[in-house]
Amino acid sequence: MADDPNPALRSELTEALVVVAKQVRGLTTVSGSSISADLAAEVVKQITARAHRRDLIINAIQKLDDALRALNTLQADGYPALDTTPLSAALQNELNGEEDDLEAGIGVFAPALAATAKITFGQPETTPPT
Amino acid sequence: MPVMLTGQRVSFALEFRLDSPDGGVTPGAIAQVQSVVFSVSDPTAIRVDAAADGLSGFVVAVGANDQSEPADVLWDADVDLGPGVRHLTGKNKPDDRFVISQNPATMASVGAMTFGPAEDVPVAAPATP
């Protein structure tokens, strides 16, 4: 089982979700009570904004869940190990031949590299006695 | 062109910067030098006293040379260019060739002339017939 990739962020998002979800419920209750049309309009506007925020938080938490599931799948595949694979002698010889050819081909080329040298001199001074 | 008197010296610093025409390394980055050996074109005029880092030190004037044949500092280095080590040789720019003059204060002998008091110039005796 993989570790949560960011437990601190998950905790922060969960707490934020509790707050905003409660606000949405409260605003929804207010909107159903006997209030003026102007107030109702403001309340509905806030319900829409807070619900949008709530949905974004839920989406972020779901992405954390997705990351955790992906890590679990990766570990189930043996990550981080990448074991070598046994090969029969015949197949290994064939592969070695390919490797030799590859090295011969690569050896045709040399990297085009160079360096620029620069020497700078100071001002004349008296040579101290040795 | 640097001019030094015998008994003087100048500091120097040598650096190698990568120059890759097709990428692969960071052009302009300082190249690591594995070894460097300095020499001079005229050992009677100058010598190189390299510091422990091998890339700096002093060029020391040891003797006067002919102004028409200034002395050069040369180097022979193994430089790490990233994918491989290259053997590089070089020398100072033509403008940095060294002319060394004799320091008057250290000349081996000093000429001195002294004068006596004024006196009459003797008249030549008439020639005998």
How would you sum up this structure, described in words?
The complex is a heterodimer of chains A (130) and B (129). Chain A is mainly alpha-helical and 130 residues long. Chain A has helices spanning 7-31, 37-76, 89-106, and strands at residues 114-121, 125-126. Chain A is flat. The model of chain A has no long low-confidence stretch (mean pLDDT 92). Chain B has 129 residues and is mainly β. Chain B is 0% helix and 41% strand. Chain B has no helices and eight strands. Chain B has a three-stranded antiparallel sheet with strand order 2-5-4, with no helix packed on it. In chain B, strand 4 and strand 5 (56-61) form a beta hairpin. Chain B is rod-shaped, with a radius of gyration of 27 Å. Chain A binds chain B through residues 111-127, and chain B through 2-5, 7-22, 24-25, 31, 58-61, 73, 75, 77, 79, 81-84, 86, 88, 90, 92, 96.
Topology:
The complex is a heterodimer of chains A (130) and B (129).
Chain A (H helix, E strand, L loop, with lengths): L6 H25 L5 H40 L12 H18 L7 E8 L3 E2 L4
Helix pairs in contact in A: 1-2
Chain B lengths: L2 E3 L2 E12 L12 E9 L5 E5 L5 E6 L11 E8 L4 E7 L7 E3 L28
Parallel strand pairs in B: 1-8
Antiparallel strand pairs in B: 2-5, 3-6, 4-5, 6-7
Task: Describe the structure in brief.
By secondary structure, chain A is mainly alpha-helical. Chain A has helices at residues 7-31, 37-76, 89-106, and strands at 114-121, 125-126.
